[in-house]
């Protein structure tokens, strides 16, 4: 928990929600406040997904333009400012991943490479708070299923790519993920 | 049934779906409030992955580009946001901002509206005694009208912003004009936030068609070199007003 303190202070959902309201009023300083608070975290997430800083920075740019234009549609009753912002970022980044350029980004993905991904995925799990439900519940999954969930979210892998990397048929991969998701849901309820 | 809905929402939030499947989910967000709630639930369950990613400071150019691209009014605030519950059209809005075609439409609509505003502004001014001789529409780097410069017969010139733009802490917005490449750009205004302002054209030759006006982001107090050093936030050339 201690290592998260500085970013947790900056990524204060209430402060971000107030800044979004400011953006909705056309107060440009509020957009800058959001940028100062959360742009480094957004850039980190985008680089992890896209693995190229230039593409990641383009996605961060596009996300801020949308935040500015769509701030008035943010509704605190439906969810936190943090998930609202990251949903825009992830949607943009996944679009880039799914676009034609994707093959460039995945050239270094070897088939059946899940074993070599496992240390990366376990590092992602270790970065989660020990006290948090996400880590506790991920650790209850079988290791290959845990790795699959983590890679899907943090690298943006599709069903097909996961199946290829796990060396299992697509249908099997889909039912693994589905059961893992339902187990996570039960555990985190 | 609820398992299917929840698993589908989870797959969507994980990012596993191909483009068509993801678009179908975006449409379902509009039509199916239970699905929208399930998606929001997954987003918050998995948010810690994003919050625990190693942070990376973006390069300075990123903010400069954002500042330029957002140099226009944000969407009008929704009129009844404090009282309205999560109604169907709000969900429709939520899905609409995830749809690229809708975005393109909104972007083009906004640009068109701003251009009409610029043209309208030009008409209104022509009807007054202070008809401008030259008008320059300054466009941001994504080609949206961001400000208008009007020059007048008596040598005055004014800049009228079409969008809110404020310089970040420690920075300033500097207005430049260029009519002679040999002389180079000359500073004609320095502000922290864009507002209607008179440009300092005294002592300069009378403005001419094709004369360039631009706004750059500079250190507070203005460019230390007397020439633009920061990113261009908007620019445009003057045309004779009919």
Automatic annotation (TrEMBL), chain A:
Keywords: Sigma factor, Transcription, Transcription regulation. Pfam families: Sigma70_r2, Sigma70_r4_2. It comes from the Bacteria. One of its GO terms (molecular function) is sigma factor activity. One of its GO terms (biological process) is DNA-templated transcription initiation. Residues 35-103 form the RNA polymerase sigma-70 region domain. Gene3D superfamilies: 1.10.1740.10, Winged helix-like DNA-binding domain superfamily/Winged helix DNA-binding domain (1.10.10.10). InterPro entries: RNA_pol_sigma-70-like, RNA_pol_sigma-70_dom, RNA_pol_sigma70_r2, RNA_pol_sigma70_r4_t2, RNA_pol_sigma_r2, RNA_pol_sigma_r3/r4-like, WH-like_DNA-bd_sf. Residues 133-184 form the RNA polymerase sigma factor 70 region 4 type domain. Belongs to the sigma-70 factor family. ECF subfamily. This is Sigma-70 family RNA polymerase sigma factor.
UniProtKB/TrEMBL annotation, chain B:
It holds the Pfam family RskA_C. Signal peptide: none annotated. One of its GO terms (molecular function) is sigma factor antagonist activity. GO terms for biological process: regulation of translation. Keywords: Membrane, Transmembrane, Transmembrane helix. The chain crosses the membrane at residues 102-123. It comes from the Bacteria. Residues 218-242 are annotated as: Disordered. GO terms for cellular component: plasma membrane. Residues 108-232 form the Anti-sigma K factor RskA C-terminal domain. This is Anti-sigma K factor RskA C-terminal domain-containing protein. It comes from Xanthobacter autotrophicus.
């Amino acid at each position: 928990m201690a290592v998260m303190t500085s970013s947790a202070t900056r990524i204060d959902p209430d402060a971000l929600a107030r800044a979004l309201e400011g953006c909705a009023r056309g107060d440009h300083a509020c957009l800058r406040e959001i940028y100062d608070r959360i742009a480094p975290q957004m850039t980190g997430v985008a680089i992890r997904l896209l693995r190229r800083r230039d593409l990641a920075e383009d996605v961060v740019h596009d996300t801020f333009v949308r935040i500015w234009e769509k701030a008035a549609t943010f509704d605190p009753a439906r969810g936190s400012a943090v998930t609202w912002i990251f949903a825009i970022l992830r949607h943009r980044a996944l679009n880039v991943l799914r676009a034609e350029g994707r093959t460039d980004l995945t050239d270094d993905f070897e088939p059946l490479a899940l074993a070599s991904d496992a240390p990366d995925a376990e590092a992602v799990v270790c970065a989660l708070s020990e006290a948090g439900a996400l880590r506790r519940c991920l650790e209850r999954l079988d290791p290959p299923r845990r790795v699959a969930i983590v890679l899907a979210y943090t690298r943006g892998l599709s069903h097909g790519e996961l199946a290829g990397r796990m060396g299992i048929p697509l249908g099997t991969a889909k039912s693994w993920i589905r059961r893992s998701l339902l187990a996570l849901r039960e555990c985190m309820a | 049934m609820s398992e299917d809905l929840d698993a589908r929402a989870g797959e969507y939030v994980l990012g596993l779906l191909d483009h068509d499947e993801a678009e179908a989910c975006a449409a379902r967000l509009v039509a199916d409030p239970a699905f929208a709630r399930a998606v929001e639930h997954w987003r918050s369950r998995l948010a810690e992955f994003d919050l625990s990613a190693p942070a990376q400071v973006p390069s300075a150019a990123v903010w400069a580009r954002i500042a330029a691209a957002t140099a226009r009014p944000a969407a009008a605030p929704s009129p009844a946001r404090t009282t309205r519950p999560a109604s169907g059209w709000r969900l429709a809005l939520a899905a609409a901002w995830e749809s690229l075609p809708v975005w393109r439409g909104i972007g083009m609509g906004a640009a068109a509206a701003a251009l009409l505003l610029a043209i309208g502004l030009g008409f209104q001014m022509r009807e007054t005694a202070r008809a401008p001789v030259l008008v320059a529409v300054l466009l941001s780097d994504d080609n949206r009208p961001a400000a208008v410069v009007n020059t007048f017969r008596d040598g005055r010139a004014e800049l009228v912003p079409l969008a809110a733009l404020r310089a970040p802490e420690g920075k300033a917005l500097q207005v430049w004009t260029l009519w002679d490449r040999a002389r180079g750009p000359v500073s004609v205004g320095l502000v922290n936030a864009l507002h209607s302002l008179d440009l300092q054209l005294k002592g300069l030759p009378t403005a001419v068609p094709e004369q360039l006006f631009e706004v750059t982001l500079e250190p507070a107090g203005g460019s230390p070199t007397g020439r633009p050093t920061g990113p261009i936030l908007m620019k445009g050339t003057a045309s004779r007003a009919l």
